[in-house]
Amino acid sequence: MAKLIALFGGRKFRFWYQTLPLKQKKMMLSWQNILMMLTILAGLGMFYYISHLQETPITKRIRFIAFTDEQFMKIANFEAKLQENMKENLFLPATHPSYIRVIQIMECLVHKNWALSNMKTQKWKVAILDSFDINAYVLASGHVFVNVGLLNFVQNDDQLAFVLAHEIAHSLLGHAAEKVSFAQMIDYFVIIVMAAIWAFMPFDGIALVTQVFYEKVVQILLDSPYSRKLEREADIVGLELAAKACFDVREGSNFWKLMQFHEKLKGTETPEWLSTHPSNVKRQELIEHFIPKAISIREQYHCNPLSENDPRDFCLFSFLHILPFHLFFFTLPFLIFAPFAVSPFPSILYFSLSFFALLIFSSLIIWYILFIFPF
Question: Does this UniProt record's set of keywords contain Membrane (predicted)?
Fold first, then answer.
């Protein structure tokens, strides 16, 4: 609504300005008047920004928050109800094995990190969605949504714990309120610039093209980088939460290798500069950097020693479960032995074709390992 007001207000100002005498136009656009207007706007903006600075829980980073906790919780609860109504048909019952699996990991993460002040005040609610999308997300209200696709995708509970810890970290750090606040702050600048564009561009068509270009630049240069920054922070804090809960933190690195491999297979990789999330390669490298610290945290919390067999050394072979060719393993025996059901002496040609199919399959596996797998 504010952007529409800025658009029509700027356009109205342009038509009004064009009717003014030349002397009055020059007076309005004098550098003294422009400087005075910019100073007033900058002063008001700076006062508003400084008066809304807060310290981020856990990381102690200073950030801008435009809402009180009570105001944002109203927004969060409304969003939670909206999500529940939209996803109601996808909810799995509390007796489902997937639900029990997630609840057990969530309880472990919450219990082992109970010393955190935000953990004590947050009320968690878990829902498992019958969706094959590889995704999980958390709302500021404490609602955690996990897709069945993610549960089938991860190789073990340690990887699942890492993902859930990442989502818990988003909630504990108040990233939802921070993202909305940052978007609101950017909108203030966008509205001012939009009003200026529609006020001073000579034609509506030029103003529209300039506005679209400007909004895209803002998204690429401001919105997306800020979102990636919050994702990295949640990765680091989530790894620490998983470490305190005595999970194998090395599996966090494997998870991002797996995601990278999966996206290459699907051809769904997005350039990082166009995405709201860091690339899987960057996230895997970030986790690798903080794994030594996470292992020391496990030792401080008297966790059982990690296995000497580092799972990162064997993740290459465990990736085969996401290859589309794995179905070939089930069909190959049928192709080879089905003729025996008809005749005890299948033709040499059939054996040759079966061997050729096996050779092609093996070559594809080797090709993926050499050229697609992220070393």
Answer: yes
* Rounded CA separation 41/46 (Å): 9
Q: Give the residue, 19 or 87, on which the prediction is more confident.
A: 87
- Cβ neighbourhood burial of 268 (10 Å; 0-12, 13-18, 19+): exposed
Q: Nearest to residue 126, comparing CAs of 141, 112, 111, 113?
A: 141
Task: Count other C-beta atoms under 10 Å from residue 97's C-beta.
Answer: 10
Predicted confidence band at 182 (pLDDT cuts at 50, 70, 90)?
very high
Does the pTM surpass 0.85? The reply is no
Q: Can you give the pLDDT at residue 356?
A: 65
Which residues, listed in sequence order, are joined to residue 307 by a DSSP beta bridge?
none
pLDDT bracket for residue 245 (50, 70, 90): very high
Q: What is the full DSSP assignment across 256-322?
A: HHHHHHHHHHHT----GGGSSS--HHHHHHHHHHHHHHHHHHHHHTTPPPPPSS-GGGTHHHHGGGG
Amino acid letter, residue 211: Q
Question: Which band of pLDDT confidence, cut at 50, 70 and 90, is reported for residue 271?
Answer: confident
Q: Which of 178, 163, 58, 174 is nearest to 113 (CA)?
A: 58
Residue 39: helix, strand or coil by DSSP?
Answer: helix
pLDDT at res. 1 = 55
The pLDDT, as a whole number, for residue 98 is: 95
What residues contact 62, with CB distance under 8 A and at least 6 apart? 53, 54, 55, 56
The domains of the chain are located at: 1-322, 325-372
What is the rounded distance in angstroms from the CA atom of residue 359 to the CA atom of residue 353? Answer: 10
pLDDT at residue 318 above 60? no
Q: What angle do CA 254, 278, 91 make, to 5 degrees?
A: 70
Does the annotation mark 167 as catalytic?
Answer: yes
Phi, psi (deg, nearest 5) at residue 192: -65, -45
What is the β-pairing status of strands 53-55 and 125-129?
Answer: unpaired
- List, as own/partner pairs, every contact residues 66-69 make where C-beta atoms lie below 8 angstroms and the sequence separation is at least 24, other chains included: 66/180, 66/181, 66/184, 66/185, 67/177, 67/180, 67/181
Query: What is the share, in percent, of the chain residues with pLDDT greater than 70?
Result: 70
Q: How is the beta sheet containing 125-129 ordered, strand by strand?
A: 125-129, 143-147, 136-138
Q: What is the mean pLDDT of residues 1-19?
A: 61
Q: What whole-number distance in Å separates Cα of residue 31 and Cα of residue 149? A: 60
